[in-house]
Structure prediction request, 247 residues.
Amino acid sequence: MVNLKIGGYGKGKKDKFYISVMLLYILVIYMLTGKYERKLKKIKCSICGESILTKGNSTKFCKKCKQKKELERSRKRYVPKKPREIICVICGKIFYSKQSGAKYCSYGCHMKGNRINGKKYYRNNIEKSRKKGREHARRHIEKHPDWYLYYAAKRRAKLKGMEFSIDKEDIVIPKNCPILGIKLVRGKRTMSDSSPSVDRINNNLGYIKGNIAIMSFRANSIKQDATIEELEAISKWLKLQQNNNKE
Prediction:
């Protein structure tokens, strides 16, 4: 190990600090005097042959030649395209475009082309398209079960020729079934007993305001189109049977 001693210093933390300060002071003086600067070299421009002064080794051109070269490079980069004559795939109209993949003359033709391509894709990939459609419908039903109940009721009313005058806001799904008290949870693929359903209070009327109730599928299937007298008779008969079995 070399033991540095400058003016009697060289041991301990304080001595090292003094050494670093002195070295920094020498470096500042060296920079201020200008001795650190590189010497200018005299070289010739590789294009025009004019003599130029430079400090580095990378410069090869004078200012004028460098500007000309940069202009040439920029012109090579940007080459303006000329509009080409293209025939529209849908209507057969001739139009001009600079784009290489242009096929349609207008937005209307573009939309028609998308519809035709979509139908072709569906015909070639029927199973895949149906699977995607079912997944999309399932996700939509999970997010908006009230919409599903609304459109299902509308479809039934149209098939049976019933009156339909309710809105989406009229269908409000409660947490529990108002009849059986079970929690309303929609099934994943099919209707379960706890699935919410739209019931017509008076079966002689259609889906009109004041004539609908949201209940579980189990309660709706029990009620169906039975009258109050019929339901009471069934409940009485069931009670008698239970009492007879106990005896």
The beta strands are 41-44, 51-54, 84-87, 94-97, 196-200, 212-216. The mean pLDDT is 82. The helical segments are 12-33, 63-77, 107-124, 126-143, 145-160, 217-223, 228-246.
